Amino acid sequence: MDTITGLATDERTARIALAVLVAPDDPVTGRMVDQVGAVETVRLLTTDGPVPTMDQTGAALWRRRLPFDASPDAVIAALRATEEFGCPTLIPGDNGFPSPLGDLGDRLPYVLWVKGAGSLLTGRIEDRFTITGARAASSYGENVAHMLASDLASEEKVLVSGGAYGIDAAVHRAALASGGHTVAVLPGGIDRPHPAAHRELLECTGDLGLLITEFPPGALPTRSMFLARARIEAALSGSTTIVEAAARSGAMPVAQWAHELGRVVGAVPGPVTSATSYGPHRLLQSGTASLVTDAADLMDLVDRGQATATTRRVARDQLSPGQERPAPAVGTPSRSM
């Protein structure tokens, strides 16, 4: 009879098992994978023995806190679906695994499922632009998102968004219509069902651009999966721009992650009478985001952000051996999120 540890005998399979059985974006598990590898992490989760760097109470809490199903059936199903669907997987260390995700530290995805042009993940981070916003977008928001994405695509930039309705859909459609490149970061399995019109858009994105997710085939989105997806959207690009977002919009965590990672954050202003203007206006008011009205604004922000980062690196490298180095910039992800 198969067991989870019997299946997870290599790093890739063990990471798929973790993606199936463990909640995403768990820094404790991520730290364990980094320290001892995925195979050993799976073994530690399925036994009652001691855990490196944890006392007995801490180990018990770690195991109890994770919704870990001891049955291997879900892992077997995910492995079979991955093979039948024919979508490659990427794990850290693979050629093509996006290096900017390394900035996530302990929150690095265990594994990525991809469909389409994986080369879109390997170019310069400054050439990828995340644009996202409200699913219940207004015609104003969709028009602005379309304009930004279309103009950036014409400059051969890669547009990253979340594959959802509203602003995300407008970004993907504009990039494809302009003959440009787009990446959809999905909050569920790469094969999950969608209504016909949206399914056609995502299929086209997978054929001409790229679909990417940290969730196994068949996984249906939950709130925690939407929140986890935000860090990947933010980390993949040199900038994140919010076009319409209500107070509790799932787009706001993307901007928060981009800020925590030291990426450029932009926001498009909207009518003060619209609830979907709250998010962009709050980001602008707090100083988290800079004003974006067109693609030229956004590209200028990214250029200035890159120049500032270069200046900081040069200043750091020119310090004499006895000089105190400055504290790290905001580029380290918050562990309290």
Word description of this protein:
The protein is α/β, with parallel strands linked by helices and 337 residues long. The protein has 13 helices and nine strands.
Number of helices in the DSSP assignment: 13
- Write down the Rg: 21 Å
**Gap between N and C termini:** 40 Å
Instruction: Give the spatial strand order of the biggest sheet.
Output: 1-2-6-5-4-3-7-8-9
Let me know the number of strands: 9
Largest sheet: 9 strands, mixed
Mean pLDDT metric: 89
Helix content: 40-55%
Question: How large a portion of the residues is in β-strands, by DSSP E?
Answer: 5-15%
Q: List unreliable stretches of 5+ residues.
A: 324-337
Element order: H for helix, E for strand: HHHHHHEEEHEHEHEHEHEHEH
Structural class: alpha/beta
Shape: globular
Key phrases:
single chain, 337 residues, 13 helices, disordered C terminus
Describe the structure in brief.
This protein is of the alpha/beta class and 337 residues long. 45% of the residues lie in helices and 11% in strands.
Write the layout of secondary structure elements.
Blueprint: H1 4-7, H2 11-21, H3 27-36, H4 38-45, H5 56-65, H6 73-85, E1 89-90, E2 112-116, E3 128-133, H7 139-154, E4 158-161, H8 167-177, E5 181-185, H9 196-208, E6 210-213, H10 223-236, E7 239-243, H11 252-260, E8 264-268, H12 278-286, E9 290-291, H13 295-317
Parallel strand pairs: 3-4, 3-7, 4-5, 5-6, 7-8, 8-9
Antiparallel strand pairs: 1-2, 2-6
Helix pairs in contact: 2-4, 2-6, 3-4, 7-8, 8-9, 10-11
